[in-house]
Amino acid sequence: SSHLQKKRRAATARRQHLKSAMLQLAVTEIEKEAAAKEVEKQNYLAEHCPPLSLPGSMQELQELCKKLHAKIESVDEERYDTEVKLQKTTKELEDLSQKLFDLRGKFKRPPLRRVRMSADAMLRALLGSKHKVCMDLRANLKQVKKEDTEKEKDLRDVGDWRKNIEEKSGMEGRKKMFEAGE
């Protein structure tokens, strides 16, 4: 039993080691991602927001303020549109997730019961009122003459195969078969 315990301890230790290694990897990845985002942000700002040079005269200053206000307005509109789009997409995603969850959770296979049904009833159930054709399956069966051959008589005398199997099963059955020379 101590061998089994050692094995278990080793497996647990290995699992712990793997878990900590994975966590360490995740932390490194997150740090890399954050650094990349920061670089991207700096590049975007450098491209879209050139350093401000303030003009000397009052007129030029007012002109600059008007430009900046217009820019702020357009950026604000863009931000609002993007937010609305995001909210809509998030809502759609949630709805789809909920649908998926419902489908996964609720759908249980119904217990199937055997139902005796004639071919006519089956076609009626499938086709509804369109079903006109009458399918009397017995009428389509081949007629068999009543003359029994010797073989058929033997087969009939054997009777229900289940009974036959039961009779031959177990030691008693084997003894009977052995005595009969089968």
From TrEMBL:
Coiled-coil annotated spans: 27-106
InterPro entries named among the record's database cross-references: Troponin, Troponin_I, Troponin_sf
Family: Belongs to the troponin I family.
Gene Ontology terms, MF aspect: actin binding
Organism: Chionis minor
Pfam families linked: Troponin
SUPFAM superfamilies: Troponin coil-coiled subunits
Protein name according to UniProt: Troponin I, fast skeletal muscle
Biological process terms in GO annotation: cardiac muscle contraction; skeletal muscle contraction
CC per GO annotation: troponin complex
Domain of life according to the entry: Eukaryota
Subunit comment: Binds to actin and tropomyosin.
Known role: Troponin I is the inhibitory subunit of troponin, the thin filament regulatory complex which confers calcium-sensitivity to striated muscle actomyosin ATPase activity.
Keywords: Acetylation, Actin-binding, Coiled coil, Muscle protein
